[in-house]
Specification:
By secondary structure, the protein is mainly β. The chain is globular and about 60 Å long. It starts with 15 loop residues before the first strand and ends with a strand. About 50% of the residues are buried.
Length: about 425
């Protein structure tokens, strides 16, 4: 039997390359998920736009794939419709994205919006770029052309946009704009960070460095431990050096918690990585008031050489939607819905879920019962080991003992324990959990 890599419940591109999730919103019990999509990958000229899929928020169903929503067909986005978010304003739904334009070797970023209509229509809805685009042209003084990924929420009576940025000194930053009407945007400044009362997170740095901070999400959340509201800033610092078991990849995703006043972020809990597995980046959070739904990219920049490309013509997946809650300054993640076991079907891999007690090891094995991936608690840590022909790889995170739940779905695997999440890809012909 030919091994099928494509998962049943994780979103993958019909063809080509997928990366960052974009523009999450819910319409009539369906979570709409847009994502960076290069349909020409790997052989054609790069033309990144937005793919579109939707999933039920109440039960596990195969994702519904819609026609693509955005294409780089305007002067200001000729070299790509890059990442962004979505926002609902009354009856209107708007997508915001970064346009990428390169002229004589210089990158000219722009921030643009698109009106979304009838997203639940069988043909995927209608998406019209605003005639006023670009709403924000280029980066302000002091920043390079690496200026992208708008994420927008209400901030009192105004709207607040945060953008990932790189300073002229080539360090990472978060930039803030405000608007009364989602159309005219005023530059507020870049976030400063007050670390006076910051407690350490799980990572080595209270605030990480890096040469670029991508994909910021800044939302208000209820801390279920003390009943108070906090601001959670999720972002992706690039260019970090490995420190022990942390920052194994130079492209990281993590968060800090505190309170925002103007352009000052008063940090109460320092940087913590959001996923401790092998492939995870560019998460997007959708606030539902007190908590959030999170979806991440099960991939990393410049790591596109997987067997799915030659075998099935696509690469990368998104995580399952995760219910994300705040407890004592710590974000905890669990699957949004239960995923059933499914048999192997034509063009799709199998799906299997399993759980074990805190003193047991959960292993994904092949037909000869040889482990391909194992998860277990030991010495105050949760470990995830991937067994490869070239040698084993292990990721570990400090964690009190607890039950482990794992989902294998085609080539994707997600492991959860005590609110921690670890993502991985497995390209061998696995058979079952033991």
């Amino acid at each position: 039997m030919t091994y099928a890599y494509r998962p049943n419940f994780h979103i993958t591109p019909p063809f080509g390359r997928l990366n960052d999730p974009n523009g999450l919103f819910i319409e009539d019990d369906r979570l709409h998920v847009f994502y960076q999509h290069d349909p020409a990958f790997p052989d054609g000229q790069k033309r990144t736009g937005w793919g579109h899929a939707s999933v039920s928020v109440s039960e596990a169903q195969l994702p519904l794939h819609h026609p693509g929503a955005l294409y780089p067909d305007a002067d200001y986005d000729a070299h790509g419709c890059y990442s962004g978010g979505a926002v609902k304003d009354g009856e209107d739904t708007w997508l915001f994205y970064s346009g990428n334009l390169k002229v004589d070797g210089r990158r000219i970023p722009s921030q643009n919006r698109v009106h979304a209509s009838l997203p639940n229509h069988p043909l995927g809805g209608t998406y019209r770029k605003d005639e006023a685009n670009p709403l924000i042209l280029d980066a302000p003084a002091g920043f390079t052309g690496h200026f992208r990924d708008p994420h927008i929420v209400r901030d009192g009576k105004r709207w607040r946009m945060v953008l990932g940025a790189q300073t002229a000194a080539e360090t990472g930053a978060i930039v803030v704009y405000h608007s009364e009407d989602l159309k005219a945007w005023d530059f507020t400044g870049s976030l400063d960070f007050d670390l006076t009362h910051a407690q350490p997170g799980r990572s080595p740095d209270i605030l990480p460095g890096g040469y670029m901070w991508e994909c910021p999400n800044l939302i208000s959340m209820l801390d279920h431990s003390d009943g108070r509201r906090y601001d959670a800033l999720v972002f992706c610092p690039q260019g970090l050096s490995q420190q022990g078991e942390h920052y194994v990849s130079s492209d990281q995703s993590g968060y800090i918690v505190g309170h925002v006043e103007g352009t000052t972020f008063h940090v109460t809990r320092g940087f913590t990585e959001l996923d401790y597995g092998f492939e995870f980046y560019a998460p997007q959070l959708l606030s539902d008031g007190d908590d959030a739904i999170t979806i991440g990219w099960m991939g990393l920049p410049a790591q596109d050489d997987t067997p799915t490309v030659a075998a099935e013509g696509w690469v990368h997946a998104l995580t399952l939607p995760r219910r994300t809650t705040l407890h004592g300054g710590v974000l905890k993640q669990v699957p949004l819905f239960s995923v059933p076991d499914t048999p192997r079907t034509h063009e799709f891999g199998a799906t299997a879920t399993a759980s074990c007690e805190h003193d047991e090891t959960l292993s994904l094995v092949d037909a000869s019962s040889t482990p391909l991936l194992s998860a277990w608690h030991e010495d105050g840590k949760l470990h995830l080991r991937r067994h490869l022909a070239t040698g084993d790889e292990t990721r570990s995170v400090v964690c009190t003992p607890g039950d482990i739940t794992a989902i294998a779905d085609g080539c994707t695997v997600e492991v959860f324990s005590k609110g921690l999440a670890l993502s991985a890809q497995i390209f061998g012909p696995w058979e079952k959990w033991t």
